[in-house]
């Protein structure tokens, strides 16, 4: 195994930014030295002028997800390669149990899709989409033997992934017993379906009505209900996924102020994009930005509130909810009926950059950037200290980030398997320069050295944030 010294850079973590040299031995970090104090006779990478950060951890992706009569367009191969280009060296994808399926069968199918195809390391959450008596036993088994310690339930999508309040409560009680975490898609699905049917009956079929029929109130209500249900389940750990709206954030903040085990993530699209500017684009164009929860109105305070929530830790994590669909033949399934547009945006390649732009814009500190894209997701989901930190003994997942570089996002240059970009034309005042996964250089400059099969399954432990 090779020894490598990353020399001359500034190592950034949640607690500070310090000039230091990082010694990698094989797949792990061996030592951190004061500048110039490391061994002289080893291979070096010059990190002068660069930030040296732990590889990104994207805790919410959906490679090859079956949805709306089609499949998310990135495979584990194309999606994890794109992740690597963007400085993300671990993904946590959602294995899926659908109604009528056995949980373990759904998990086995997900392992079969991923095994041998990933360019970066991967772990799984489990979607419980057909909750029943057997699901309860399966939860225990996944926690103890499969390294899966978080379970996603849906308050939306009746007839597809939906769980009712009784099912949710039982899953929460079980999670409280076995130490795992419940992740919640918090939107009131049955109420949304009424609004959708009424809109379609009025002839409102354009993509913007996807957002209008999923109002903030129905995200806030579901978030609040999930928080109360978790309190009935003895303060079961609860993680709200893809939080998009101010009033949902208020619910999370209030619960956290009471010391509850309530956590939340947001996604880059909610920090930057809006109902009017993107979802309301002329014609059918807005279909590119159909995702759930939806983009929120421009003139309401959502984006400013979400950035503030990231600073104050009411939002602990930024994930992508990467769920790409091509425009042609996929998003187009919803021409003339917005409810048939597959839900999802592809961003796995851009999360680290888009959040770095928050640093440039004075919305986040450098330390908080690293914390929200790498360290906290690793700690939240039982991957720490193997992932999410530059420290002796940790996996050598390291990104050299160039604050003097520039990134222009475009379908012409991205590596995701999509025929458009939700971020077309976005410019970032920074650039991923070098990406290392378990000691192997995957990306240097614009050259790719990685391969499908390098990435391994990482079984997870319990969350670091629970006692
Ligand atoms: Zn969801
Ligand atoms: Zn999702």
Explain what this protein looks like in three dimensions:
The structure is a single chain. The protein has helices spanning 76-85, 103-114, 133-146, 165-178, 189-201, 208-212, 216-232, 246-257, 268-272, 275-279, 302-312, 351-360, 366-380, and strands at 3-7, 10-13, 16-19, 21-25, 28-33, 43-46, 51-54, 56-61, 66-67, 70-71, 88-97, 121-128, 150-154, 181-185, 238-240, 262-266, 317-318, 398-402, 407-408, 427-428, 431-437, 440-444, 447-448. 57% of the residues are buried. The two termini are 38 Å apart. Strands 8-11-12-13-14-15-16-17 form an eight-stranded parallel sheet. A seven-stranded mixed sheet has the order 3-2-7-18-21-22-23. It is α/β, with parallel strands linked by helices and 467 residues long. It is built from 13 helices and 23 strands. It is globular and about 70 Å long. α3 runs parallel beside α4 (165-178), α4 (165-178) crosses α7 and α7 (216-232) packs parallel to α8 (246-257). β13 (150-154), α4 (165-178) and β14 form a beta-alpha-beta unit. The site of one zinc ion (ZN) has 4 residues, from loops.
Number of helices: 13
Proportion of β residues? 15-25%
Main sheet summary: 8 strands, parallel
Spatial arrangement of strands, main beta sheet: 8-11-12-13-14-15-16-17
> What is the averaged pLDDT score?
97
Structural category: alpha/beta
Using the alpha-carbon principal axes, give the shape.
globular
Key traits:
alpha/beta; 8-stranded parallel beta sheet; 13 helices; 7-stranded mixed beta sheet; 467 residues
């Amino acid at each position: 195994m090779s020894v490598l010294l990353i020399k001359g850079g500034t190592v950034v973590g949640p607690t500070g930014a310090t000039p230091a040299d990082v010694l990698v031995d094989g797949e792990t970090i061996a030592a951190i030295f004061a500048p110039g104090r490391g061994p002289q006779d080893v291979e070096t990478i010059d990190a002068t002028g660069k930030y040296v950060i732990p590889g990104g951890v994207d805790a919410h992706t959906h490679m090859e997800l079956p949805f709306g009569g089609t499949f998310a367009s990135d495979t584990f191969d194309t999606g994890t390669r794109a992740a690597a280009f963007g400085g993300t060296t671990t993904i946590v994808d959602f294995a899926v149990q659908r109604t009528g399926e056995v949980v373990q069968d759904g998990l086995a199918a997900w392992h079969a899709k991923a095994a041998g195809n990933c360019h970066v390391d991967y772990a799984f959450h489990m979607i419980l989409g057909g909750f029943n008596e057997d699901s309860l036993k399966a939860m225990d088994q996944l926690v103890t033997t499969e390294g899966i310690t978080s379970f996603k339930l849906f308050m939306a999508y009746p007839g597809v992934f939906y769980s009712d309040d009784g099912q949710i409560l039982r899953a929460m009680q079980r999670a409280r017993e076995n130490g795992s975490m419940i992740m919640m898609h918090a939107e009131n699905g049955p109420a949304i379906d009424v609004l959708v049917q009424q809109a379609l009956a009025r002839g409102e079929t354009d993509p913007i009505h996807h957002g209008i029929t999923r109002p903030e109130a129905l995200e806030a209500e579901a978030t609040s209900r999930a928080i109360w249900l978790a309190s009935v389940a003895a303060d079961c750990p609860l993680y709200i996924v893809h939080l998009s709206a101010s009033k949902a954030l208020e619910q999370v903040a209030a619960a956290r102020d009471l010391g509850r085990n309530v956590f939340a993530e947001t996604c880059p699209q909610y920090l930057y994009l809006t109902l009017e500017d993107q979802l309301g684009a002329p014609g059918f164009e807005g279909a590119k930005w159909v995702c759930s929860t939806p983009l929120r109105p421009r003139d309401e305070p959502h984006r400013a509130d979400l950035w503030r929530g990231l600073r104050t830790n009411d939002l602990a994590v930024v994930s992508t909810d990467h769920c790409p669909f091509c425009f042609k033949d996929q998003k187009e399934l919803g021409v003339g009926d917005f409810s048939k547009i597959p839900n999802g945006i592809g961003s796995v390649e851009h999360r680290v950059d888009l959040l770095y732009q928050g640093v440039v814009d004075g919305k986040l500190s450098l330390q908080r950037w690293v914390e929200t894209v790498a360290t906290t997701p690793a700690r939240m989901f039982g991957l720490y200290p193997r992932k999410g930190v530059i420290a002796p003994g940790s996996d050598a997942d390291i990104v050299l980030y160039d604050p003097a570089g520039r990134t222009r996002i475009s379908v012409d240059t991205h590596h995701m398997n999509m025929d458009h970009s939700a971020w077309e034309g976005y410019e970032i005042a920074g650039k991923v320069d070098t990406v290392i996964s378990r000691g192997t250089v995957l990306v240097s400059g614009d050259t790719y050295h990685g391969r499908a099969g390098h990435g391994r399954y990482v079984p997870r432990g319990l969350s670091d944030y629970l006692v």
